[in-house]
Specification:
There is one protein chain. Helix 3 packs across helix 4 and helix 3 (about 95-105) packs parallel to helix 5 (about 140-155). The two termini are about 45 Å apart. The protein is of the alpha/beta class. It has eleven helices and 14 strands. The relative contact order is 0.13. Bound molecules: adenosine-5'-triphosphate. Adenosine-5'-triphosphate (ATP) binds near residues 20, 22 and 43.
């Protein structure tokens, strides 16, 4: 598929359990060859969203396409284009690792001569090559997790959906999983990874999608290395944290900053401030020009790179502030 069209498109998706609106008019597009960290507090709707994208739950309203396939209209075809690891997965205990991977590959359309090579490749990727003849019942929790991830990627899907993929893995296995996700992304796969372990997501994610109470509260690229075409597909306008330092104290700094269009003050004292500037480099240039023209003694003006944890806390706190108003 073309890299210009989104790998995953979710439009106006609402999902209701009896008495609970788990997803509320959620819309976003995810660019190809990216890793999106799906984050949010317990009960935010992350699992429900992944299940809807995977075609396992049918939303009340909305449209979902994966790799150009309408998931609600053609779920079987969509399944061949995606891999999904649920938060609570099961394996067939009596099958060996090889049989488990073969079963997953065949169920997703891999057949004939390709089958054996596909299984070997997945086993190597998950460092399971020496376990292929072992029965799943005899595997440790972490190894079972690796087999389940192997089953999700064995058919080389365009899109991979992972719900808490690192739970139960030892630190070394977590590290190799992070490296695997980066490699899959570099090879062109598009991943959504739901997890509460933000430091790990930070290692490989290119985008952050925050859900809270079933609503999308933020969706943006995390790194400046994201291309302009990718950034353009993101639903919300990115706000970039910018640190402003002054050569000497300027008593009216807060008021001066508060009056800037397209910028919000996060922290401020008389010689140092953290702003959120909405937009790209030209918006930052406009803010800097306004400050200089007003006579503010700016000595440094630079983007501040937040980690995922800081970005997440900021968006959740902002959403909590908005809903409390
Ligand atoms: P967590 O981080 O705790 O795994 P989550 O973000 O994955 O949470 P979901 O599991 O999608 O959240 O749940 C979203 C909302 O839907 C919650 O309020 C939850 O209680 C509710 N919910 C989930 N599954 C069901 C169900 N089978 N029946 C009724 N309500 C449900």
């Amino acid at each position: 598929m073309s890299t210009a069209s989104p790998a995953i498109s979710v439009a106006g998706v609402t999902y209701i359990y009896p008495g609970t609106r788990a997803l509320d008019a959620v819309s976003f597009d995810i660019p190809c060859a990216s890793v999106t960290a799906l984050v949010g507090p317990n009960g935010a709707g992350k699992t429900t969203l992944l299940r809807c994208i995977a075609g396992l739950d049918r939303p009340l309203t909305g449209e979902i396409t994966v790799a150009g396939v309408d998931v609600l209209e053609e779920p079987r075809l969509a399944h061949e284009r995606m891999g999904y690891l649920s938060d609570f997965f099961g394996l067939y205990d009596e099958l060996t690792v090889r049989q488990s991977l073969m079963h997953a590959a065949s169920a997703n359309g891999v057949a004939g001569e390709k089958l054996a090579a596909t299984v070997t490749q997945a086993a190597e990727r998950l460092e399971l090559a020496d376990r292929l003849e072992q029965r799943c019942a005899a595997l440790s929790r972490g190894l079972r997790q690796r087999v389940a991830i192997g089953q999700a990627i064995v058919h080389a899907p365009d899109v991979l959906l992972l719900d808490e993929p690192a739970s139960g893995l030892d630190p070394e296995a977590r590290h190799s999983l992070a490296a695997l996700f980066t490699r899959l992304k570099d090879e062109g796969m598009t991943l959504i990874v739901s997890s509460h372990i933000l430091a790990e997501l930070d290692e490989y994610s290119t985008h952050m999608l925050v859900l809270r109470g079933g609503k999308l509260i933020e969706h943006r690229p995390l790194s400046q290395t994201v291309s302009r075409s990718q950034a353009d597909t993101v639903a919300t306008v990115a706000e970039q944290p910018v640190r402003v330092r002054l050569a000497w104290a300027y008593p009216g700094l807060r008021e001066q900053l508060a009056a800037l269009p397209g910028a919000r003050v996060i922290e401020c004292n008389s010689a140092d401030a953290l702003l959120l500037v909405q937009g790209a480099a030209d918006a930052q240039a406009a803010v800097l020009r306004t400050l200089i023209e007003a006579g503010v003694p700016v000595s440094s003006f630079s983007e501040e790179h937040e980690n995922l944890h800081q970005s997440y806390l900021r968006s959740v706190q902002r959403a909590a502030g908005v809903s409390a108003q």
